Amino acid sequence: MPVKNKRASETSDQPGPELPPPQAVPPPAIQFNRQQLVNAVLEAALGDGLPSSELAALARDRKHPLVLIAAVPKSGSTYLANTLRHITGLLPFRLSSAYSTNEQDLFLPALCLANANGCISKLHIKGSYHNAALMRAFDIKPILLVRRIEDIVFSLAHDLRRKAQIPQSTTGEAGYSFVWLDENTKNFSDAALLDLVIDIAVPWFVNFYVSWYRLREQGAVDALWLTYEQMLVDTEATVRQVLAFLGFRNLGAIDPGLLQRRYATFRDGRIGQGTSAMSAKQRRRIREQFAHFPGVDFSPYGL
Fold first, then answer.
1. 9: Cα separation from own chain's centroid
2. Buried-most residue among 43, 50, 98, 294 (CB within 10 A)?
């Protein structure tokens, strides 16, 4: 049964030189097995996960990989998703039930819809037992993308300032799952907005990292850790590392213009801005929240 592809608005490019399309004529609809979708959802709802027969059927139908970029906000995930999309020809698809102020956990019907065609999906998604189980069921090897924590806080505060001016932000239509924007947010000073991010959002970043760190340590997911800084310093090598991890090899030369492309969510991108923008007290408060997990290596966050 055909269904319109759920393209995400954040994949739209800024005006600039046009890139060749990933394929000559992108399919206007994706094909899926309706009965398989119904069976999978019912079995999962009534039982304890998908039975082996359903998993085998899904695996037989899967011709292309489901690529998941599990990223913290403001870490370059839009750039990575669009770059992989252009190189692989896979279409963007939302593997969660919704974006914005929803938690972006994996959504079984969406996984079934994308199963045969493959996709590129970027989500601000924490690790969980059930997310990991669904990744194993659909053979998803997530890319875990993070950035220096001070730069995340600084960039996120700037983004919240922008979103607070959007009328839909106070309804929850625009924003993030870990912070609610309302009329008060519009009037915050820069320092107060940084404090909001540190107090409300940084705990989410801690849990994002620890959840994936532990799941990977347990062997529950086969994941690749990646940092924004690594991607910025050696873009092509990093992109090729991701492609090889996902099973794409012998792709030939990559257009340098594609690697230099900037997208609508790009603001500045410099490394180290957050440190100079925050007080010593604010930086100390950030580190205190990571101290609850002394056995976890937080170095990808710059800690």
1. 14
2. 50
User: Positive or negative CA dihedral for 37, 39, 42, 47?
Assistant: negative
- Per-residue burial over 80-112, b if 16 or more Cβ lie within 10 Å, else e, is bbbbbbbbbebbbbbbbeebebebbbbbbebbb
* Residue carrying the six token digits 């059927």: 57
Tokens of 265: 């969510």
> pLDDT tens digits, residue range 213-245?
999 999 999 999 999 999 999 999 999 999 999
Q: What is the pLDDT of residue 141?
A: 97
Q: Cα(20)–Cα(40) distance, rounded to whole angstroms?
A: 37
Q: Is 19 helix (H, G, I), strand (E, B) or coil?
A: coil
Q: Measured between alpha carbons, how far is 190 from 156 in angstroms, rounded to an integer? A: 12
3-state class (DSSP) for residue 165: coil
Distance between CA atoms of residues 191 and 200, nearest Å:
14
Q: What length does the chain have?
A: 303
pTM greater than 0.70 (yes/no): yes
Query: Cβ contacts of residue 187 below 8 Å, gap of 6+?
Result: none
CA distance 122 to 95: 8
User: Are 262 and 232 in contact, with CB atoms under 8 Å apart?
Assistant: no
69 bridge partner residues: 122, 143
Query: What is the helix (H) or strand (E) element at residue 122, kind and residue range?
Result: strand 119-123
Q: What is the dihedral of CA 78, 72, 231, 214, to 10 degrees?
A: -140
C-alpha distances out from residue 234 to 86, 256, 295, Å: 19, 12, 29
Note the maximum CA span of the chain: 58
Contact 67, 111 (CB under 8 A): no
Count of CA atoms in the C-beta half-sphere (13 A) of 136 = 15
